[in-house]
Amino acid sequence: MGQINWDELKKEVPEWFRDAKFGLFFHWGPYSVPAYQNEWYSRNMYCGGLEQNKYHVETYGELHDFGYKDFYPMMKGEKFDPGEWARLAKRAGARYAGPVTEHCDNFSMWDSSVNPINSVNYGPKRDVVGECMEAFRKEGIRTLATFHHQWLWGWFMSTDNEADVYNPANEVYYGPALPLETNRYIPYRYPDEAFCRTWRDKVYEVIDKYEPDAIYFDSRTCIIREDYRYAMADYYYRVRGMKEGIITYKQEDFPGDIGVYDIECGKFSRPRSFPWQSDDRLEDNITWCMVQNPKYKSAGRIIHQLCDIVSKNGNLLLNVGPYADGSFHPDAVAILEKVGDWLSLNGEAVYATRPYTIAAEGPTIVEDENYDKTKIEEQIKKGGAADVHSETLTAEDFRFTTHGDTIYAIAMGWPEKGEFQIRTLREGGPCQREIKGVSMLGSSRPLEFKRNSDSLKVKAPANRPCTYAYVLKIV
């Protein structure tokens, strides 16, 4: 193709995405069968010296006898119910959602003509993406397709020369044999034309068949040749005319003005002028898929994270991984329902809001955080993801959002002395206008307040309307 002009693809982020604030996605694939440590099992089982390799050989046998392809028939998905997934997403308060469309393992979760290794020909024998998209739309939820398949370049290359990935008969499952160094984050040998073409055609097929409202690309998309990345974006936005569609990307994999910047497990210390997204996991283990002994973050932790992100002009895309049979752990369901209960009462301060002049107040310092190249390279070397620092917010911490002339001050706890004190809204502070009234979402009566040069003091109601965080509505 001729000169690449990314400027032709510049676009405003659609209002629906800016208003949505909260989304869900679901890591589900053959890696959900061993459910050991994390979703990188498909790669790490082939890397001698890593725990997953040792576990695999001890549990399933040598790599030339039992390879990743042999998990396919074990992923039966007998409890997969796309309607239940959609109802869970709606109950949780998510406004956009979707399954991982293809992870790094060449297993497409849709009815694909481009890739015979897909969820209709193998595993559950179901069009997972298609069924989920239909179910989500019936619940009024925008749809999301997530792509991680650029990682396939070198993903399966093994330290064991006898591994099944090197058998030419298995190329359809794993791709052609490549030098072992191609499994690095930025390899010396970039993907060849055939790989880039297939990468693009998989995305084309999903766009054509399902028209997702948002397309998420995981990191390492930068190794795909630029003309193929451009052609994909051009096809989505202009050829197919997805004017309300949006691409999300990581690092510097796409130019900033053509999509939404995503920071994995990330946060900003201050509001950003541009809409952004953080994708993170409900799982409190360092995994994005179901594992043998799952544990989950608390509802309060997720709610505080959501409020912090939204106050800074971001969206939270939260992951939860189902079992290999397609069902969810009851603890995960219960936590998501608690998040949904909070949003059903307090969503006015979240959905369709915009940042206030100041995003945050309080003693807890939140620093910029991103799962960057350094952390990715550490994960590749050690086989497990690095943990990401997370602050604990207190009752003295507030997050601010706005809708029109209304200011929402979200308190991250209940004041011990029965009075909220908000310095940001003091007389002579950033809020120059008169404050006419204060109420708490979920509480029927107006609240008593006093405003002076020190702070806005608001008397808490006698009863708490909810738990985790409390929204003061200021008019």
UniProtKB/TrEMBL annotation:
Family: Belongs to the glycosyl hydrolase 29 family.
Ranges where the Glycoside hydrolase family 29 N-terminal domain occurs: 4-348
Function per UniProt: Alpha-L-fucosidase is responsible for hydrolyzing the alpha-1,6-linked fucose joined to the reducing-end N-acetylglucosamine of the carbohydrate moieties of glycoproteins.
SUPFAM superfamilies, A to Z: (Trans)glycosidases
Any one GO molecular function term: alpha-L-fucosidase activity
Organism of origin: Acetatifactor muris
Keyword Hydrolase listed: yes
GO process terms (BP): fucose metabolic process; glycoside catabolic process
Alpha-L-fucosidase C-terminal domain sequence ranges: 395-474
Sorted UniProt keywords: Glycosidase, Hydrolase, Signal
Pfam assignment, any one: Alpha_L_fucos
Record's protein name: alpha-L-fucosidase
Superkingdom of the source species: Bacteria
GO cellular component: lysosome
Family annotation (Gene3D superfamilies): Glycosidases, Golgi alpha-mannosidase II
InterPro entries: FUC_metazoa-typ, Fucosidase_C, GH, Glyco_hydro_29, Glyco_hydro_29_N, Glyco_hydro_b
EC primary class: hydrolase
Enzyme Commission numbers on file: 3.2.1.51
